[in-house]
């Protein structure tokens, strides 16, 4: 198969002078230059951020207004303690710092208490908003209830919930106490939830009585009881009556607390913030669990705050009063990424439901009504829009939209074409990539540089990202492994109840003192990154390296094909690719379509 990921030499988008000058990133560069540096572009800024890592992270703390005690970073080891055995893996960032995640997210309430903090809607058409003051009041009440249930620093609170305001409130109340938040979405089965939550032993569980998706109603009450009864660590469960009068049957709720009753039981008062160590645990996220039990990945308070502020303000140009939307569930790390936008004074725009029900325009109607400035989604969603021949710009005014972020899988070159032809021409398209492992991005966009077709723009600031061949040598213009050669504040604390062995094996064992991420990528001459998929899914028939994403790029665009998956079989000492396809209609895979698929893959 020929390489189908050739990118364009000409940029698809170049920011205007006004866009560059008004960006947070350009102001950050000017702030750095005032101190004697000579930085003119993103490449030079990235080089400085890696070479002068101490200065860079201290400047991010100051520029992004991190709230908390930073520690003495002038003398001694105030910024970081470097490990003796593995300097990158064992670095401890800001060892003296004390701060609180919720305090940073709710700080804007003091500046504009009557502004909208959360704009929520779902596929049933229910819409609600919360001002910053209302958000703080509800967080205060739920915080009091959690304290009444003896939740404190280091305890785990779990959410089995859709992405809705109550979820954000419960998380903020939990983290305000210095406790640890973990969540999954309600589409997870009972065994999957028990497999995850059972490892971290939550003291309190938040859940809902049901939800709607793609026009169907899902009753969650029986599943909630099964989970609560199967986890002996749970001392109290709060069930939110999300579906009003839409579930029937006698399922007694006598053993559960009720969300509305909690709100009526306490008076709002100022939220108390328990500042904890920079490297204390904040979130537990979960690996996919494709081999054995899902790994419980622990992320720190300070690492999450400072990295999300960096990514939001410098890379995505999120500013106060911006309206930030990301389509995500509570089982994906982009939920954690999305809610952190509150720390930049932005409004969270939230949608719960199917993004294609009752029609493909549901999210774009929301984008117009809520004046969305950053629209976040998955590459698969953009692919689905393209296949449905839906053109948002023909139906909606997207005057406020300045950034579109795409992640979750490879954004193919034809999706770049689709975005600029059918969504908005003058817009920053940021194909970003990172993962649950770091609750952030290794490769990301920036608002002052051109966007090239098929490319992620650049490595994230402060991260020494490179491409290694199998011998551990850095390569450009050649496919290889995505790696990071330095430490960064948001690298995970490790895995829950792991002595460090599994954590080391997962990320640090392949190359000495280097994070190995497992992506099959190529660095381009422009400094961008082309993604081919996961390196552990790369096929090698006849010694030819083929990323599965290259196959999906061609097959999934064919009429009649909804999705596909390629696997390898070892036959007579070689690999044979076997392709499974999901059809758009329940019909047999005929010879005509088989022939079309074969010829497409052969030619492309």
Spell out the key features of this protein:
604 residues, alpha/beta, eight-stranded mixed sheet, seven-stranded mixed sheet, 18 helices, disordered N terminus
Explained architecture:
This protein has 604 residues and is α/β, with parallel strands linked by helices. It is 29% helix and 24% strand. The chain is built from 18 helices and 31 strands. It has an eight-stranded mixed sheet, with helices on both faces. A seven-stranded mixed sheet has the order 6-5-18-17-19-20-21, with helices on both faces. A four-stranded antiparallel sheet has the order 25-26-28-29. α15 (413-422) links the parallel β20 (403-407) and β21 (428-431). It is globular, with a radius of gyration of 24 Å.
**Largest sheet, if any?**
8 strands, mixed
Structural class by secondary-structure content:
alpha/beta
Percent in helix: 25-40%
Q: Which geometry do the CA atoms define?
A: globular
Short description:
The protein is built from 18 helices and 31 strands.
């Amino acid at each position: 198969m020929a390489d189908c990921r050739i990118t364009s030499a000409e940029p698809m988008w170049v920011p205007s002078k006004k866009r560059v000058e008004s960006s947070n990133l350009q102001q950050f560069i000017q702030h750095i230059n005032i101190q004697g540096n000579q930085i003119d572009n993103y490449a030079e800024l990235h080089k400085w951020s890696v070479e002068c890592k101490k200065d860079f992270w201290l400047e991010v703390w100051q520029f992004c207004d991190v709230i908390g005690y930073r520690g003495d970073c002038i003398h001694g080891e105030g910024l970081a303690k470097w490990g003796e055995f593995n300097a990158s893996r064992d670095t401890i960032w800001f060892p003296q710092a004390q701060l609180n995640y919720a305090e940073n997210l709710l700080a804007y309430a003091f500046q504009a208490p009557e502004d909208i903090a959360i704009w929520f809607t779902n596929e049933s058409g229910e819409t609600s908003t919360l001002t910053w003051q209302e958000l703080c009041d509800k967080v205060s009440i739920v915080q009091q209830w959690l304290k009444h249930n003896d939740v404190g620093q280091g305890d785990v609170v779990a959410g089995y919930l859709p992405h809705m305001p109550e979820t954000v409130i419960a998380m903020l109340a939990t983290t305000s106490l210095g406790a640890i938040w973990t969540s999954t979405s309600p589409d997870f089965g009972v065994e999957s939830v028990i497999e995850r939550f059972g490892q971290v032993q939550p003291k309190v569980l938040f859940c809902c009585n049901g939800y709607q998706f793609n026009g169907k109603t899902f009753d969650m009450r029986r599943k909630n009881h099964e989970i609560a009864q199967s986890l002996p660590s749970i001392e109290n469960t709060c069930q939110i009556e999300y579906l009003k009068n839409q579930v029937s049957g006698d399922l007694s709720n006598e053993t559960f607390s009720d969300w509305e009753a909690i709100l009526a039981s306490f008076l709002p008062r100022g939220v108390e913030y328990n500042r904890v160590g920079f490297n204390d645990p904040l979130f537990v996220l979960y690996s996919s669990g494709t081999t054995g039990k899902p790994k419980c990945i622990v992320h720190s308070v300070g690492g999450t705050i400072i990295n999300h502020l960096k990514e939001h303000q410098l890379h995505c140009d999120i500013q106060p009063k911006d309206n930030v939307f990301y389509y995500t569930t509570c089982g994906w790390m982009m939920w954690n990424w999305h809610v952190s936008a509150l720390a930049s004074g932005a409004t969270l725009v939230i949608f719960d439901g199917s993004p294609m029900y009752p029609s493909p325009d549901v999210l774009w109607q929301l984008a117009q009504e809520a004046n969305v400035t950053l629209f976040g989604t998955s590459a698969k969603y953009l692919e689905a829009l393209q296949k449905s021949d839906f053109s948002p710009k023909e139906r909606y005014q997207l005057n406020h939209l300045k950034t579109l972020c795409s992640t979750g899988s490879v954004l193919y070159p034809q999706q770049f074409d689709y975005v600029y032809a059918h969504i908005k021409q003058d817009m920053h398209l940021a194909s970003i990539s990172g993962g649950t492992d770091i609750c952030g991005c290794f490769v990301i966009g920036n608002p002052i540089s051109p966007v090239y077709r098929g490319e992620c723009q650049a490595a994230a600031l402060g991260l020494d990202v490179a491409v290694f061949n199998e011998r551990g040598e850095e390569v450009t213009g050649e496919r290889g492994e995505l790696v990071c050669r330095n430490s960064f504040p948001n690298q995970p604390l490790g895995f829950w109840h792991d002595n460090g062995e599994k954590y080391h094996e997962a990320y640090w064992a392949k190359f000495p003192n280097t994070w190995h991420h497992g992506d099959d990528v190529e660095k381009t001459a422009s400094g961008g990154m082309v993604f081919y998929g996961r390196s552990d899914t790369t096929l090698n028939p006849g010694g030819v390296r083929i990323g599965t994403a290259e196959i999906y790029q061609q097959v999934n665009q064919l009429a009649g094909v909804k999705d596909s998956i390629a696997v390898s079989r070892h036959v007579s000492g070689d690999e044979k690719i076997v392709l499974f396809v999901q059809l758009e209609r329940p019909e047999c895979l005929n010879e005509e379509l088989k022939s079309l698929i074969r010829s497409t893959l052969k030619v492309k």
